[in-house]
Amino acid sequence: MAHPDVPGSWPGKKTMGTKLVGTLQLENGEMVYVVYSMIENPTFENKSINANFFKGRSQADIEDGKLRMLVFGSHHDGSKTLYDYPVYVKTGN
Is the pLDDT of residue 2 over 70? Predict the structure, then answer.
């Protein structure tokens, strides 16, 4: 939520190169800005887990392209972020 300093601008437009999705004016006059930006995917270290399947689910339910991971974060300027990543499954040794 913010009060823009410049009409036609929004938080992160210049500093982070964000694009505006939309706005919503709150009852108190403040605006909520929904913005996005595309970035290169960071590299995460590979993690190994032992999967347990429940209620009729099987290995086929975790094939590549079917799983997503959401990561929430905060930037130094106070803005909140949401990252959406595919999860790739490697089976076997």
Answer: no
